[in-house]
Design goal:
Elements lengths: L2 H16 L7 H8 L3 H7 L3 H20 L13 H18 L1 H9 L4 H5 L6 H13 L6 H20 L7 H12 L6
């Protein structure tokens, strides 16, 4: 990635962290970083393409922040189920402290392609899917279990962000136990 693209991505991230991403236009972004709109479009053909690349970057940061440290000795690492529960709880807490970030990561229009054709660009997705593979009791496919777990996490954070629910760690644990089984991943 060249310096200009890095500058564009960083400016977009700064916007997302302080304001509603829906209010960001390519024109506003270009003005913010001292570029012409045409020059910005030479790097990113559309706002959706830019948002996709920003999502990949932010997903990596969130994965590094929320997923357990894999460099620990095996005996000190959490089980797959404990890791998934910690991740879900951390996402809910992040939703409370930085709702604009979670909103962008889950719902921005640049993710349409990812949701329709899951790929490996997202480190966060890859690591969650690895946990799902370990936890799957075999009653459904890994992708179906991921969809069930992710629908809960994403839906619950959406309710929290919109004031329709308060974060409840016990609810998260109970729901994940129902989805992956009480004894899975031990």
């Amino acid at each position: 990635m060249d310096k200009t693209e890095e500058k564009i991505i960083q400016a977009t991230i700064e916007w997302i962290m302080t304001a509603d991403y829906r209010q960001l236009s390519m024109r506003k972004l270009a003005a913010q970083i001292g570029m012409t709109t045409g020059a910005l479009y030479k790097h990113y053909r559309s706002k959706e393409e830019l948002f996709y690349q920003v999502s990949v970057r932010l997903s990596q940061r969130v994965a590094e922040r929320l997923l357990p440290d894999r460099s620990l000795p095996a005996k000190e690492q959490l089980s797959a189920k404990e890791q998934l529960l910690a991740l879900a709880n951390s996402l809910c807490q992040l939703c409370v402290s930085q709702p604009q970030l979670v909103d962008f990561l889950f719902f921005n229009p640049g993710l349409k392609e990812f949701y329709q054709h899951t790929n490996s660009d997202f480190q966060f997705y890859n690591q969650v899917m690895a946990l799902i593979r370990q936890l799957n009791p075999g009653t459904v496919s890994d992708q179906d279990l991921f969809t069930q777990v992710w629908a809960f996490i994403q839906g619950y954070t959406f309710l929290i962000m919109n004031g329709a629910a308060d974060y409840d760690a016990d609810l998260v644990a109970t729901t994940l136990n129902q989805l992956v089984g009480k004894g899975a991943g031990k």
